[in-house]
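Input (structure):
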């Protein structure tokens, strides 16, 4: 039996033909080739499945996975065989060809130092309206800072040891917007990540993005998720509440914000 790959890159798709080619090309371009790709399709009827059919190498396609994005991501994790799992959605792509090599080196150096890691993440860049914006700042990470909302964990640039999911669980399939924040709060409570202070991925911000299409609902769900974990860092949650009220007032000042 062949050895499992280092990386399992999970890509969830649904009528993603317009952007998927960039996602696939960024994985093909990686200098680290010890990769499997797991595609989880929700029932595409455009050219998505045709693009996936043309993929070569170590790939697996799960078809007609319904039930929302959290369920799709969990299906990908269940199908993954790699040591390190990442979710790179069909809207997003890796920033450079050495991203996976850089992440692999971060895990390996920590292991050699006797401080094995459960997760690593880096910064992202945002592509909006066809323009690639400057890299987003990446504040220092601590559990309290993340619980307070002053530190961020950009999902396209997160890499998690597959074994860690057995400790903290998978994405909450009842959540639509803040399922990643919920998972990072669970993971961060037991394990400090390594942070790579450079862009690892590019996120497309467009009106069809789930998190961009209904900002009020996303904020409400994020508040409920953070309240769920408030007991682990009560002061940090109180600070987050102040941030939440400020952001909510800003959204309420824009009558069209949050409309689907």
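Output (sequence):
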């Amino acid at each position: 039996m062949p050895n499992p790959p280092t990386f399992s890159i999970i890509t969830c798709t649904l009528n993603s033909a317009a952007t998927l080619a960039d996602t696939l090309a960024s994985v093909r371009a990686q200098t680290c080739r010890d990769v499997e790709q797991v595609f989880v399709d929700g029932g595409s009827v455009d050219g998505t499945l045709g693009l996936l059919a043309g993929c070569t190498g170590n790939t697996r396609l799960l078809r007609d996975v319904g039930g929302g994005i959290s369920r799709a991501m969990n299906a990908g994790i269940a199908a993954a065989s790699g040591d390190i799992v990442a979710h790179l959605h069909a809207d997003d792509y890796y920033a450079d060809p050495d991203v996976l090599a850089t992440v692999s080196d971060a895990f390996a150096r920590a292991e050699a130092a006797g401080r094995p890691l459960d997760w690593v993440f880096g910064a992202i860049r945002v592509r909006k309206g066809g323009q690639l914006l400057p890299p987003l700042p990446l504040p220092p990470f601590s559990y309290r800072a993340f619980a307070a909302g002053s530190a961020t964990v950009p999902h396209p640039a997160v890499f998690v040891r597959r074994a860690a999911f057995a400790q903290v669980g998978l994405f909450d399939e009842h959540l639509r917007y803040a399922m990643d924040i919920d998972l990072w709060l669970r993971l961060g409570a037991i394990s400090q990540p390594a942070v790579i202070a450079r862009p690892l991925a590019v996120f497309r911000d467009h009106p069809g993005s789930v998190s961009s299409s209904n900002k009020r609902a996303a904020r409400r769900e994020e508040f409920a998720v953070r309240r769920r974990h408030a007991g682990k860092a009560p002061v940090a949650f109180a600070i987050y509440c102040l941030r939440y009220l400020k952001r909510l007032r800003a959204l309420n000042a824009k009558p069209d914000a949050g409309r689907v």
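Notes: The longest strand covers residues 194-205. The two ends are 49 Å apart (CA to CA).
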